[in-house]
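May I ask you to comment on the folded chain given beneath this request?
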Amino acid sequence: MTAPLKGLILCGGRSTRMQQDKSLIDYHGMPQWQYLYQLVHKIIPEVYLSCREEQKPALSDDVPLILDCVEGGGPSVGLLSAHKAFPDTAWLVLAVDLPLISEQSLNYLVSQRQALKDATSFISPVNHLPEPLIAIWEPSGLKKLRQYFDEGKNCPRKTLLQSDILQIENPFSAEQFNANTPEEMKEAEGQISHG
């Protein structure tokens, strides 16, 4: 049976390279978490923000949250906290550092989903490896992530590389641009302002 699909916006990173909370950066006339939440909500009715406890005051009370409840760091914590809350759910996972992502990329990802795989993932246009944070993780893939995490292997990409996944080319691959530094933020702002 196909697992139900929910959306998960990963906001819980420490944003050390950006020197400010990436979820609060305004690229589109609103905080980035809100932009991504609205974007995913157009495609999937049930969307959650994954965040740390101390981020709660900066987020809306109207948006459902999944607080980090797994010891450790990195994006695995958000994924595993969501899996712990809803173990039979598949997640469309989106990192908060994707200022150029749009509905067309997400619709394409959802249309290509293969629920019998561990995950459906875009291929990075930079290194041609699976993108673990623009992907649909099935419950089986999240179980593998938990196993690797418990073994001290805290890397979602390595989990995907060792799993049965569908990797797809995004026709809109420029939208996979990550903004993790002030310089990349300025680059993203320039691209957005020029359409």
